[in-house]
From TrEMBL:
Its EC number is 3.6.4.12. SUPFAM superfamilies: P-loop containing nucleoside triphosphate hydrolases. Residues 25-192 form the Helicase ATP-binding domain. This is RecQ family ATP-dependent DNA helicase. GO terms for molecular function: DNA helicase activity; hydrolase activity. PROSITE patterns: HELICASE_ATP_BIND_1 (PS51192), HELICASE_CTER (PS51194). Residues 206-378 form the Helicase C-terminal domain. The keyword Hydrolase applies. The keyword Nucleotide-binding applies. Coiled coil: none annotated. Keywords: ATP-binding, Helicase, Hydrolase, Nucleotide-binding.
Amino acid sequence: MDKLSEILQQKFGHTSFREGQKEIIEQVIAGKDVVAILPTGMGKSLLYQLPAYFMKGAVVIVSPLLSLMQDQVEQLKMFGEKRVVAINSFLTYEQKEMVMSNLAMYKFIFTSPEMLQNKRFNCALSSISIAYIVADEAHCISQWGYDFRPDYLRISNWLDAFPEANVLALTATATQKVVDDIKGTLHMSNPFEFIHSLDRPTIAYEVQKADSQKEKEAWIMGRITTTNGPGILYTQSRKKAEYYAYELEKKGVKVAFYHAKLEQEDRVLVQQQFQQGDLDWICATNAFGMGIHKDNIRQIIHDHIPTSIASYMQEVGRAARDGKQSIASLIYTNSDVEQAFYVAMKDFPDETDIHAAFQSEEYQILLPETTFRILSYWKEILSEQETIALFHDIKKRKWLEIQKLFTLFQSELCIREQILNTFDEQLTTKPKNCCFNCSLDLQQLLTKREYQNLENIELNWFNRINELLRP
């Protein structure tokens, strides 16, 4: 047994590597910059955890979500690693000072993009040895990505203080444009790239068109109340997430809602209940999913057109992590495409905002927080006209992305094949349950839910789902 496999078994309890893991880990240990794109559930965290035991110094992991950060900290502690800390808003001032004063004690240091601007933190980092730096969920670096975080762009200047540290960028989905952005922002020099196939053969794709919002809601309620989970229902608004959860709870479904406005304690509780099987369904915005380690998710449902193919694949990829058959269903109306564009652009400044912000700092402060952060970054490096031109280009590209996804769902061609083509990948083998346009045995895919109170389920919903299940 080689040393890598020995540590894999001793520290993490695995007897073999998954595809690509060993090659990526070897490159990190060799001091190479690495871009690794692996689908959800393919063991991305191991890629930065294992190399640490072969290298001197600490590993700094920049992670965009507090919940994801905490989950990864707890995961390492479960493996027996005590030299791990997350430096974020969860810590009090006194706790942060204690950690900063003893930073050399830690092997794994998790932090947020925003924390990279903290002078006290950077001073503490400069006093210790750093083995390598990890950009987790690295698609957030790119304005062309689906979850753009402007503070992540500042990592570019921050990296200048650590020229000797190699960088590992991790994400589940990224187009070539996003990959190029990642490499440029992270100052990568001839990086090793590993891009795993995006195809998940055990996830079948279903698309349904509804004539109205009312019909859409009836279909969703029928599907969830008559078939088994566990599952996630993705919707675009907090109000909708709460509405679905309340209505489903009335029907006897073990369900909760999740969105960014929940208190942190409530978010952690919902995540834990879902992971432990106390909840069968989560009704959520796109705030839910990163860092959720639940292997047996059988259904993902979207009640809208996502803002990009990449975001869609990130969310449906949370199903079937155990390798068993699952289904990703999407139901839409024609009006959903305009709503998707509104959601995609709502945090980006328009021309009026840009002009006013360049003229007045007071005006900029009045903008929503995300818009303020975006403008704050670009004002530092672009002129007013250059900033207007940039966001005109972003707006155009976002619209094209949404139209492309909308066209894909309306097409009669293979959904799986079209998705893979978007990422310059060819489909070599179609699974038995491929997609709604090829072959899809809903009766086999969807296990009927057992009812204790059948009378509580409205008959028209029950009939609708049974018509779909009929062979």
